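hi support,

uploading two proteins for the ticket. first:
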Amino acid sequence: MRYSALKVFKEALTGHKGWKPVWREPEPKAEYDVVIIGGGGHGLATAYYLAKEHGITNVAVLEKGWIGGGNVGRNTTIIRSNYMLPGNEHFYELSLKLWENLEQDFNYNAMVSQRGILNLIHSDAQRDAFVRRGNAMVMAGADAELLSEEQVRKECPFLDFDNARFPIKGGLAQRRGGSVRHDAVAWGYARGADSRGVDIIQNCEVTGMVIGNGVCSGVETSQGTIKAKKVAVCVAGSSSRVMSMAGMRLPIESHVLQAFVSEGLKPILPGVVTFGAGHFYVSQSDKGGLVFGGDIDGYNSYAQRGNLPVVEDVCEGGMALMPMIGRARLLRMWGGIMDMSMDGSPFIDKTHINGLYFNGGWCYGGFKATPASGWCYAHLLARDEPHPVATEYRLDRFQRGAMIDEKGVGAQPNLH
């Protein structure tokens, strides 16, 4: 079934009796060409592009919970490509280009809203750094615009420009950035993959790997053994636990990242705003709530909830940037499990075990990378060679001294 304005109008006149389930609930088959472990945004995008771009439809996506219940539904919905280093910028620019045509591509309303993202400048040194970043973005084919203090005042008059500690001196804007409805992305990719023959199997937890003579030939699950020619792991914060089933130890730590939503307010923010003197970012949802977040919790955890010191830290950042946020009531909060790599950049690569592939280490960048991650992972699975924009995301880059230290803060994932 294709969605359209005409279809909505027709169903409204006929009592909405013609809608069909968005995807099937199949029983797992005994064997697949590709089994994808993880039914989040990246796993579903991979299955969708495997079927659509490479014609590989004998695919199963295994999800231990329900579609949309993991990190893809537990983030702050921001999309952008304002990276600087060559290993990252072209990848995230590809992702942003895929976002721009995503709804037309999979015929689903993901509420892609390119309202722009503004990174604030608070010092002369920071201006120099943002000029460099903006130039790198433009040279890589992305868009970037350096704004003066007067321009920022015109667009965001509610900010605390004359703060004694953190005066606002300008900003770096990417007009094509913005936000997307997070769980709608999962539903859209799931629907698109299912319509092309992919089996999406919920409540199917992987409990082990079938490995012999250096070859991975399937997985053990709560619904039985499933054989596969290729097994693709794509489980975000659970990467270390799943890959340990194959005897692999990853350069990854798992941390909780909390997000928050305020009560509904009248339109205030024109787009996404980030605090340059602290870790705080905020946008406004279509329902009017302020959606914001900040640092990860400073301890390792697999729990989808955080602690109060981080709540205090994030709210302090919001108050320093825009004091009016103190008048808004917090409506809800949640946590996602971040797979923090040691250089702040991800992995999309084959492992030393034949037939076993890995996608992870996305740190804060997982949601915005969803389309390009799926596109490049599907390319790797179909052709057994990395996509041209993902050649730096190798598992052995630490051994080779080829880190992609985008944040420049060293090998401490709690500081990324």
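and the second one:
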Amino acid sequence: MKAIKQLFVLALLAVSMTATAQDDMNAALMDYVKACPSALVGMDDKMGEALKMINQELIKEYNGKTSEELVSDYMENHFLNDMVENVMAPAVTEFATVDEVKQLAAAMKSPEGQVFQQHQKQMNENSDFEKLGTSIMETIIAGVEPEDIQPDPACPKTYIDTYYKFYDLSNLNSMVNQMTAMFGDKKDDPDVKKFVNYLTKNMRTIYLNQSYGIMTTDDLKFGVKTYQTEAWQHMMQASAKMVSDPQKLGMGIIMGYILWLQGQGVETQM
């Protein structure tokens, strides 16, 4: 009997320690995404629009609120929590430690990290990547071989070398894979293959030209320093795991939203 009691106590301690470790990871990730909003860039807008569409099939009784009001309330006050706990934490725990997440949060909170993120945001807002991609595809479909993109003539070689090092350490090259996946069943089409091959060859220079004049050399050095760490590499492994199954990622958020709706007294079809 004494042995059974000891095992029971050990089991309770194990559960308690696991819960504490999960709480620590959730807290560290919440700190990280607040320090580094680009970690979820675009996710809130996409999910907000998706939830408005889901409401039409999901909700029976809105409990006095409009569909837009419910989604806005959830996205502003609850989305980040659910994203961290239901989606990010399970993936990140598989690859990174709590201390590594804290390390990245501290780097992004630093003055250099804050300027780096401001300039990244400015670059993304000014980017004409989508327009350029459309133009390249139209050229290929027209049967014309697009010329390789060259670095901006005004861009110094020292900046180019630093940027290419920054790019190679970053996760920017994954954009090619993401764009390829968007073609779905047509990814083996000859024109699509030409487009993907062209992007694979020219992506670094495309990003270089868009970055020059916005991202400073100090920004790039900060990025290289951060991206070289095991903490960042582990975070990128976790990010790849999350986006590798978009359906699972989306369902993680939707289930959190459904539970929140039910807590608001909203009657759902579930």
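thanks. also noticed: The first strand starts at residue 59 and ends at 61.
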